[in-house]
């Protein structure tokens, strides 16, 4: 089991870190491009779009990295259950919520509530 666990950690490093790193680098470049936009409203709209996507991606990759890159324990703890819940439930629930809050009508109804 030790070799299997070691293989899982090594493969997780190669399968999780490069895509997340690529996303971070890409968003860094997008951020620099957005800063060059002359209109303040255009910058605000671009940052709004990017930030909502970045939040969802960070929660998704963050929970996956916590699950697969840390040493495994013999028993399942409450923390493991919470991380699994965040990965399996919170990320899919956040996606429509974050993107619908960008709609003016939905935002208005939310603030009235």
Automatic annotation (TrEMBL):
GO BP term, pick one: G protein-coupled receptor signaling pathway
Transmembrane parts of this sequence: 6-25, 46-70, 82-101
First-listed, main subcellular location of the protein, grouped into a coarse class: membrane
SUPFAM superfamilies per record: Family A G protein-coupled receptor-like
Alphabetized GO MF terms: olfactory receptor activity
A single Gene Ontology CC term: plasma membrane
Source domain of life: Eukaryota
Membrane topology reported for the UniProt record: Multi-pass membrane protein
Location(s) in or outside the cell: Cell membrane
Cited Pfam families: 7tm_4 (PF13853)
UniProt keywords, alphabetically: Cell membrane, Membrane, Receptor, Sensory transduction, Transducer, Transmembrane, Transmembrane helix
Domain G-protein coupled receptors family 1 profile: 1-99
Record's keyword annotation contains Cell membrane: yes
Record's protein name: Olfactory receptor 13H1-like
